[in-house]
Amino acid sequence: MKKKKAEKIEGKKELEEDKTEEKRESKEEDKKNGKREPKEDKDKRYEKQTKIAIILMFVLIFAISFTYWLIQESKKFEYNGLKFEKIMFGDIPLYRAKIPLFDSLRNLVANYNLYLRNDPRKLKDILVTGEIRLMKNVVIAADENLICEDEAIAGSSLKGFLTNVVRTNVFIGTTEKSKSNSNLIYADCNSDKFSTLIIETADKTEIVQAGQNCYKIKISNCEIMGAVEKFMVELYKNSRRLI
Q: CB 3.0-4.6 Å disulfide test: which of 8, 80, 122, 142 passes with 237?
């Protein structure tokens, strides 16, 4: 009984396979004879191809979008409480951080764009001796022997940062007492009325606390941009504390 049933099933399979083969051979014969494909089969084939094309298009769009996102995210990083993003200004790479500015009631009034020429993570070799704390009034003076290409840019960047972010009153000074006057403050490390920042040439680029309210930004090989940017980032890390 079981044997007959198995033979019956086997015969049915062979019959279905024969029909499938006949249909395939019939289609091939129709193609050879120039007969058109039935409209129903043609529509199904077109629909299938369209679905595949749409799926491939979405996969491609996703791949491009994801790759772009990865590239953009790779340009962002956080350092000393600041979120930086690497951008290009023409051929010059810059590192931008947006610093929120608040009024006395802690209302956001603006964002200050801090632009650095150097990757702040690579400024770790510039040592900082002491803790940077500033008074409300700050005098900046540069050694007359300091002549560097980026001196003006570094000075402008430092003054803008101190004025807008740290919110100190910035005055220009001189390290030469004989040249001081009512508009040019003599900058030394003995004042208790203001903080003093002296930028001077040295054998090693570093930042040194030379007195209670005095800091010397020492410059070697005209590394003035790196030293000034290190000072700003270090000052922000100290939470903009004022005496």
A: 80
CA-CA distances (angstroms) from residue 39 to 34, 44, 145? 15, 9, 90
Residue 110 placed within a domain: no
Structure tokens at 178: 């004989």
Residue 196 belongs to a domain: yes
Exposure string of 59-95, with b = 16+ CB inside 10 Å and e = fewer, is eeeeeeeeeeeeeeeeeeeebeebebeeeeeeeeebb
List the domain range (segments joined by +) for residue 182.
Answer: 120-237
The pLDDT, as a whole number, for residue 93 is: 93
Position 233 in a domain: yes
Dihedral Cα 28, 33, 37, 38, nearest 10 deg:
-110
pLDDT at position 2: 45
Domain boundary among 74, 100, 134: 74
Over residues 123-162, the pLDDT tens digits come to: 988 999 988 989 999 999 998 888 899 999 999 999 999 9
Do 127 and 68 have their domain in common?
no
Per-residue pLDDT tens over the stretch 195-239 = 999 999 999 999 999 988 999 999 999 999 999 999 999 999 886
Q: How crowded is residue 225: how many other Cβ atoms within 10 Å of its Cβ?
A: 20
Burial 171-186 (b: 16+ CB within 10 A, else e): bebbbeeeebeeeebb
